[in-house]
Specification:
Shape of chain B: globular
Number of domains of chain A: 1
Largest sheet of chain B: none
Strand content of chain A: under 5%
CATH topology of chain A: MetI-like fold
Radius of gyration of chain B: 25 Å
Oligomer: heterodimer
């Protein structure tokens, strides 16, 4: 008769893989390699990713490559043309444009990323829970979201900006108002997107399997279904980054952004209007910067869409 | 269809209500109130005078009563008086609407004239130079900020080449030729960017349409290719394009602020913007309200139009 019970001594040889930190790091690296290989599938994604990488590097290295203080005015060197000393020249107050663009870029990118993050943090759970639980929760949430979508969000920001100015608050409140208003603008779009995908995923067999195992009804949508719904959200988020950047630039161009000395691509363009005839280059550099950043986001988002979509139909 | 329309109109009501509440309450978050503003530099410090003024303007009543009074006035068309010009706001606003509408219509027309042929060609002649050029151009077009593009247009066409004027507005009803000349630059600046968005849309919808079975059927019937494309595919592909153009038009009506400012165009967006700069609160209130309503209503109309044009969605 075979032995059906193992004595304690015989159990010692069993090897158990305990997840250690190195395991997670290993998985992370593998994930990155996978991602990089996937990127090659689309030229647009590759170009977009490279452009974004350059952008990121410039942002991180700003304290080292921006040679002048972007706020300090220098009346001895007004409106200079690009030279070895000032790469992009100086503006009407003698500030180095290259430094202003670098510092302004940091701030703008940070605000856009935070705004989209706000949209993601609120929109995704909203859409997931609405789509999963269905019935009247879904109906009610979708009505609210539709009304939200119809509401012109920029007007809210305009009102908030006027309030900030009237209450004479510090500049950072203006940035917070931007983040809030623009994030709130993104939420309904993302919520609808997630809800649509969750509705489709909900009917698949693995969900039923999870329920059969006995996973709690909060666990299923958040840990099991959600990771499968992530692809269109990523694409939408990337493109939203681009459009948010454009909106912020337009608002500061009109003078509704942060108050004057803060380096900002939009308001720099506004300042350059007075000197367009003599120094057209001043009007070109900030605009070029905006276009470059938005183009990077759009290219990357487009490429991501190409990578993620055909792959999904293959599965 | 009728049920859906009524449903959507009912949706409008809470949105508009919230809009009015937000707009109304905004003024009340401002430090000081109307009386301080009216008092000007010296202010009004005498409490007796202050109380008399408050009673006269109805500011001593509870907030919701003030809101209802304001709403009542608005519904009767009285938007108050501008603090800067001291003239009734309603008249000034409605005087400027034609200019904005004119600009919005011409830009949308320009964008459609460029985008539809370009998008169709790109879809029909896939993977050729035309296709790649259209894709690249439209991608660049949506990445460029419209105010920068407008500035570049002014820089190039007005300052450098001196061909076109960069400001002033002439009504098309009065001097058609002059109005056209002054209109080209702002409308092109707006229209070209819109065209980029519409080109992508047209291209992708045409790509989808061309792959459908009825196209093969038409071709195997021996119909000339041109007829297949223009009479059948294009019409179906136009549905989403028209709706998106409608939405863009709605957006334009709500905010051509940037282009209007650059070209000194006397439109609604610029009026609102100048009111914000000069802190003319009654005008800000009226402007945000009117523009908000316009945008919401236009969105609704476009949505209904889409349902009318696309029977599949209507009967779903």
């Amino acid at each position: 008769m075979a032995k059906t019970v193992l004595l304690p001594d015989e159990l010692v040889d069993v090897e158990v893989h305990v997840p250690t930190l190195t395991l997670y790091v290993q998985r992370f690296w593998d994930g990155l390699h996978n991602a990089a290989r996937e990127l090659y599938k689309s030229k647009t994604a590759l170009i977009g990713a490279l452009m974004l990488l350059v952008l990121l590097l410039l942002c991180l290295l700003t304290p080292y490559i921006a040679r002048y203080d972007p706020i300090k005015q220098n009346y001895r060197e007004l409106l200079q043309t690009p030279s070895a000393k000032h790469y992009f020249g100086t503006d009407r107050y003698g500030r180095d444009i290259w430094s202003r663009i670098l510092w302004g870029g940091r701030r703008l990118l940070l605000i856009s990323v935070l705004a989209v993050l706000v949209g993601l943090l609120v929109g995704i759970p909203l859409g997931t829970l609405s789509g999963y639980y269905g019935r009247w929760i879904d109906a009610f949430t979708m009505r609210v979201v539709d009304a939200w979508l119809a509401f012109p969000g920029i007007l809210v920001y305009l009102l908030l900006a006027t309030l900030v100015r009237e209450w004479k608050l510090a500049g950072v409140w203006n940035d917070l108002a931007l983040i809030f208003a623009l994030g709130a603008n993104q939420i309904p779009r993302l919520a609808r997107l997630v809800r649509g995908t969750v509705l489709a995923e909900k009917e698949k067999e693995y969900v039923e399997a999870c329920r059969a195992i006995g996973e709690s009804s909060l666990y299923i949508p958040l840990r099991e279904i959600l990771p499968n719904c992530v692809s269109p959200v990523i694409v939408q988020a990337t493109v939203s980054l681009g459009s948010t950047l454009l909106v912020i630039a337009a608002l500061s161009f009109l003078g509704l952004g942060s108050p004057p000395p803060t380096p900002d691509w939009g308001s720099d363009l506004n300042l350059s209007r007075d000197h367009m005839e003599s120094r057209p280059l001043i009007a070109i550099f900030p605009g070029l910067a905006i276009s470059y950043a938005v183009l990077a986001f759009n290219l990357f988002g487009d490429g991501l869409r190409d990578i993620l979509d055909p792959r999904m139909t293959d599965r | 269809m009728l049920a859906y329309t009524i449903n959507r109109i009912l949706y409008l009501i809470p949105v508009l209500f919230i809009l009015t509440v937000v707009v109304f309450s905004f003024v009340h978050f401002l430090p000081g109130d109307v009386i301080d503003v009216l008092g000007g530099q010296e202010g009004v410090f005498d409490p007796a005078v202050r109380q008399a003024l408050q009673q006269e303007y109805g500011l001593d009543k509870p907030l919701y009563v003030q809101y209802l009074v304001w709403l009542n006035r608005v519904l009767h068309g009285n938007f108050g008086t501008s603090l800067v010009t001291r003239r009734p706001i309603a008249i000034e606003f409605f005087q400027r609407i034609p200019a904005t509408v004119y600009l919005a219509l011409v830009s949308t027309a320009i964008s459609l004239m460029i985008a539809v042929p370009l998008g169709t060609m790109a879809a029909v002649k896939r993977h050729t130079v035309v296709d790649y050029a259209a894709q690249v151009l439209s991608l660049v077009g949506i990445s460029i900020p419209e105010f920068w593009f407008a500035l570049l247009c002014v820089l190039f066409f007005a300052l450098y080449l001196g061909w076109l004027p960069s400001s002033e507005y002439y009504s098309p009803l009065d001097h058609f030729g002059l109005s056209l000349k002054h209109m080209i630059l702002p409308a092109a600046a707006l229209g070209i960017r819109q065209a980029a968005i519409t080109t992508r849309l047209t291209r992708s919808t045409m790509l989808d349409e061309v792959q459908k079975e009825y196209v093969d059927t038409a071709r195997s019937l021996g119909l000339p290719e041109r007829r297949v494309i223009y009479r059948y595919t294009l019409r179906n592909a136009m549905i989403p394009t028209i709706t998106i153009s409608g939405l863009q038009l709605a957006q334009l009506l709500g905010g051509t602020v940037v282009v209007e400012t650059i070209f000194a165009w006397p439109g609604v967006g610029r009026t609102l913007f100048e009111a914000i700069i000069s802190r003319d609160f009654p005008v800000i209130q009226a402007g945000v309200l009117i523009l908000g309503i316009a945008v919401v209503v236009m969105n609704l109309l476009v949505d209904l139009l889409y349902r009318v044009l696309n029977p599949r969605v209507r009967l779903a």
